[in-house]
Design a protein that fits this description.
Blueprint (H helix, E strand, L loop, with lengths): L13 H29 L11 H12 L15 H13 L3 H16 L2 H11 L4 H11 L3 H4 L11 H18 L2 H17 L2 H17 L2 H32 L7 H9 L2 H21 L3 H11 L9 H24 L16 H17 L3 H23 L2 H4 L8 H7 L7 H20 L2 H24 L15 E5 L6 H14 L6 E3 L10 E7 L18 E7 L2 E7 L10
Helix pairs in contact: 1-4, 2-3, 2-22, 3-4, 3-9, 5-6, 5-8, 5-16, 6-21, 8-9, 8-15, 8-16, 9-10, 9-11, 10-11, 10-15, 12-15, 13-15, 13-17, 14-16, 14-17, 17-20, 19-20, 20-21
């Protein structure tokens, strides 16, 4: 972060300062409302989740938190309760799964739009003039890394805002002290830990910062208060997630901690983690048009004493880089080899810090002090990361499964969501950085216009091509008292089974789904809907030879997976989703 330039002007009269504060408050409020409107419009017309089982996992957790029926999510990833608690009001206000989901998206927009006022504070911290900071932070808040995941019911929606708010609060604590700053930093760190496993890295770094503050007499009191708040808030987060885990994961969740431990205790594991972390950096750089790469160079340049940075600036640079490397390394180490191209270059995990680096990169372009060296170093860093991904991935980049949702911005850069075009995407990202750098030389309005154009075009295309679609769910029967049962086994594969079970559980809003073995006949009396596997090449009626006579059957597909929904015609039916 750059030091703000000292002011040589006399202090303005109190009346002028009050008017300036009022104008700033109105500008921030109007800008925030405009951000909310843009984010809601981007997701208009999406009645159902797109990403299973992730979205369903959070939505089912939110339903359980309000006392609704739970679900057995054993064997899937553990979807923590922090984000679910945030969107729980949608469960209370929504009349059905469709209206509930739309309310969740509105809640996402309300919280995600906080990227604008918080981004304004960060740019001011970097020495950008107020009017320029307002304009640039509004445009930067629409970078896909900070916005795209907000179009889905995911913890990734709020993590960019949480991380940005935490960094600003920690910066205030380190630079000026104050109990309020310490408490805000502690609460945001604890919420990050409650919302996602990446938050554990944030919480660990936060505790280290507080330990450092305890060594300074003038920071000791606020640090002690902040530490107490951290203990209480983190304990509450632990209690919430423990209750959630016991209720929704009776058979245990996917053992990512075991994979993490194995990787961190072997040389091969460290090699995998390091290579995956570099791939995440490449994806973050490319997905922010290399602005995050410029920001990374700027942050790293503050580390040496000879850089002229203040001790507080160097501390914050260490904090940001430690959180970034910790998230990238730990998430890569915990990720099993799923034979996906995303194992080698995945941008979602670092999306929570991408906005921070993007804003710092924008500040570098605006201040024009050493733009050419910074941009050149950013391109060199990006090229090294691209070569690393190409060498480490090798032939697997072409033979492993390519999932478009793993590469939203990368697919846009290469105009192809069927395979990874590493070189093409990299070249286009460099061209975009050159264009943004050229716009910055024309002035802040030109840079803001370029940022806004690129951001909106990217978001419109991505929401139309990737996130707008959602799989159809056939009508269920039984509300509000009838049971819903899913075959066990369904496909014999835990991941495939989870894709269907979470869909059915989400739309069976009145009851917790049961399991039954279709080979031994129908489920218990009182069950109105039964879900079984279906070979989509065969007639639907053949999917359940032992099914009850007179029941109706409807079918659905998720890629190669087919499933059949059998319903008792005497039971009330839900409309199809």
């Amino acid at each position: 972060m750059a030091d703000a330039p000292p002011s040589a002007l006399p202090e303005a009269p109190p009346e002028l300062r009050r008017r300036a504060r009022d104008r700033l408050s109105w500008a921030l409020l109007i800008g925030w409302l405009a951000q909310v409107a843009v984010r809601v419009l981007l997701t208009s017309g999406r009645p159902r989740p797109r990403l299973y089982p992730d979205e369903a996992g959070y939505l089912l957790a939110a339903r359980w938190l309000l006392g609704g029926p739970g679900a057995d999510l054993s064997g899937s990833r553990f979807y923590q309760g922090g984000y679910a608690l945030l969107v729980a009001p949608a469960q209370a206000l929504g009349e059905d799964p469709t209206s509930m989901y739309r309310l969740v998206i509105v809640i996402n927009a309300v919280f995600g739009a906080l990227a604008f006022p918080l981004g304004h504070l960060l740019l001011r911290r970097c020495g950008i003039a107020r009017r320029h900071a307002l304009l640039l932070s509004w445009c930067a808040a629409l970078v896909p890394a900070a916005t795209l995941w907000g179009t889905m019911a995911l913890a990734d929606t709020v993590l960019p805002v949480v991380l940005l708010g935490w960094l600003l609060a920690v910066d205030r604590l380190v630079c000026r002290g104050g109990v309020a700053a310490g408490c805000v930093a502690s609460l945001t760190a604890a919420f990050a830990e409650a919302a996602h496993a990446r938050g554990r890295v944030v919480l660990a770094v936060h505790v280290l910062v507080l330990a450092g503050c305890l060594s300074r007499r003038e920071r000791r009191r606020p640090a002690l208060v902040a530490l107490a708040v951290t203990v209480v808030a983190a304990s509450a987060a632990l209690f919430l997630n423990d209750r959630l885990y016991r209720s929704l994961y009776p058979g245990g969740s996917l053992d990512t901690a075991g994979d993490l431990l194995k990787r961190l205790t072997s040389l091969d594991g460290h090699g995998w983690a390091l290579s995956g972390a570099v791939g995440q950096l490449w994806a973050m750089f490319a997905g922010t048009w290399l602005l995050a790469a410029v920001g990374t160079v700027a942050v790293v340049s503050r580390l040496p004493r000879r850089s002229g940075a203040s001790p507080e600036d160097r501390v914050m640079a260490v904090v940001l880089l430690t959180v970034t490397s910790g998230i990238a390394y730990a998430s890569s180490a915990a990720l099993p080899d799923e034979h996906r191209v995303g194992n080698f270059a995945y941008g979602r995990y670092l999306a929570c810090v991408a906005l921070v680096y993007t804003l710092v990169g924008i500040a570098v372009l605006v201040r024009r002090g050493r733009v050419v060296p910074a941009v050149s170093a950013a391109i060199a860093l990006f090229a090294v990361s691209a070569v690393w991904v190409a060498v480490h991935g090798g032939e697997r980049l072409r033979t492993y499964e390519y999932m478009p949702i793993d590469f939203p911005e990368i697919g846009l850069l290469s105009l192809d969501w069927t395979e990874l075009h590493l070189t093409r995407a990299s070249v286009v990202a460099v061209v975009l950085l050159a264009a943004l750098s050229g716009a910055a030389r024309l002035g802040v309005p030109a840079l803001a216009a370029a940022l806004l154009t690129v951001g909106l075009v990217a978001l419109l295309l991505l929401t139309m091509l990737i996130t707008r679609t959602g799989h159809h769910v056939p009508a269920l029967a039984g509300a509000p008292t009838g049971g819903v049962a899913v075959a066990d086994p369904l496909y014999g594969n835990a991941d495939d089974d989870s894709l269907v079970r979470t869909r059915v559980a989400l739309y069976a809003w009145w009851t917790e789904i049961e399991r039954f073995d279709p080979r031994h006949g129908p489920p218990r009396p009182g069950v109105c809907t039964a879900v079984v596997a279906w070979d989509h090449r065969s007639p639907p009626a053949s999917s359940w030879p032992r099914g009850p006579r007179g029941w109706r059957v409807a079918t659905a597909r998720i890629g190669p997976l087919g499933w059949a929904v059998w319903t008792d015609p005497s039971c009330p039916r839900q409309p199809p989703e």
